[in-house]
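ARCHIVE CARD
CATEGORY: sequence design from structure
SOURCE FIELD: tokenized fold
FIELD CONTENT:
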């Protein structure tokens, strides 16, 4: 009886929405049967409205949907039960009775806002079908996560403009993630170059000054994220400063030697440095190796620590 009453509700709502209605329509060769077949009076579209109250497996409901679609018939599945396990696997909505009679779409109609899918308005089923028949809402397989209580719904009903907004958001999020990964990779590469150059830098400075230098633990913003090398407590050289940070520190760095890991890096730094800036490319495997008095092996630094120092967060 409940199934029959829901079919009557759907047929009444479909007529109110402007559709032509037939009940218990069979497909070719009996491959499927629609509870309610709604169609455009001029025959340009047909949509099966399925009242599904009895238990059905996800595989079965997907197979029935596919059989109808293969014959050019779209479908919308309806239930007024607590969220059925197939809701969102196929184009579907959940209905709830309202005071005074009638049914509202309570779940399955959504909108995209501020990067998330959230529940759309509750509307009478006739209004929902009017939107479906007119293409104002369409079924959509979400690309982005959603807020509770919609996380289990994959296929939802929404307006085309929300789908476009989601696509723009997904593309922008992917771009930002790519930039984040590239930035992190650049920091890792910088840390590796600085670490590999510490010993050759100590040997280079000792060879120039005859004094055993002290190497800082990590780069700092004051030295363009390069690692300072100290002689008698004063900065003497900078290991692998970040080229893009050099212009803002030209005066501070002008009296120091900037040490690069390769000729390519030396040229990159030189393009940003002031005139007369001394920049030396050190090849670790070719560096001179004089006897150096005891020195403290510099500590390594993590990517997180490097980012913290880069933005000066360690001083807040």
């Amino acid at each position: 009886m409940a199934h029959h009453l829901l079919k009557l509700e759907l047929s009444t709502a479909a007529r109110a929405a402007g559709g032509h209605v037939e009940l218990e329509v069979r497909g070719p060769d009996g491959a499927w049967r629609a509870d309610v077949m709604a169609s455009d009076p001029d025959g340009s579209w047909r949509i099966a409205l399925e009242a599904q109250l009895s238990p059905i497996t996800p595989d079965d409901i997907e197979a029935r949907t596919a059989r109808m679609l293969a014959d050019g018939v779209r479908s919308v599945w309806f239930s007024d039960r607590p969220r059925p396990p197939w809701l969102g696997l196929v184009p579907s909505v959940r209905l709830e009775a309202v005071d005074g009679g009638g049914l509202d779409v309570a779940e399955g109609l959504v909108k995209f806002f501020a990067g998330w899918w959230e529940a759309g308005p509750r509307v009478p089923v006739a209004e929902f079908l009017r939107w479906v028949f007119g293409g104002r809402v369409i079924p959509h397989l979400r690309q982005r996560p959603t807020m509770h209580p919609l996380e289990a719904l994959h296929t939802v009903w929404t307006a085309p403009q929300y789908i476009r907004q989601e696509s723009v958001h997904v593309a922008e999020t992917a771009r930002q993630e790519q930039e984040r990964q590239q930035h992190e990779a650049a920091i890792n590469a910088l840390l590796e170059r600085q670490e590999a150059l510490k010993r050759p830098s100590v040997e280079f400075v000792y060879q120039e000054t005859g004094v055993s230098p002290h190497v800082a633990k990590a780069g700092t913003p004051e030295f363009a994220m390069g690692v300072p090398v100290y002689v008698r407590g004063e900065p003497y050289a900078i290991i692998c400063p970040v080229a893009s940070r050099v212009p803002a520190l030209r005066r501070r760095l002008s009296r120091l030697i900037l040490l690069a890991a390769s000729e390519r890096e030396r040229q990159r730094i030189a393009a940003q440095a002031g005139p007369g800036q001394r920049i030396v490319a050190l090849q670790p495997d070719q560096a001179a190796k004089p006897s150096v008095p005891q020195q403290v092996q510099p500590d390594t630094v993590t990517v997180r620590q490097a980012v913290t120092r880069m933005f000066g967060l360690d001083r807040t």
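CARD ANNOTATION: The longest strand covers residues 20-26. The helical segments are 2-16, 58-70, 125-133, 160-209, 250-253, 263-270, 303-310.
SHELF: design records, drawer C
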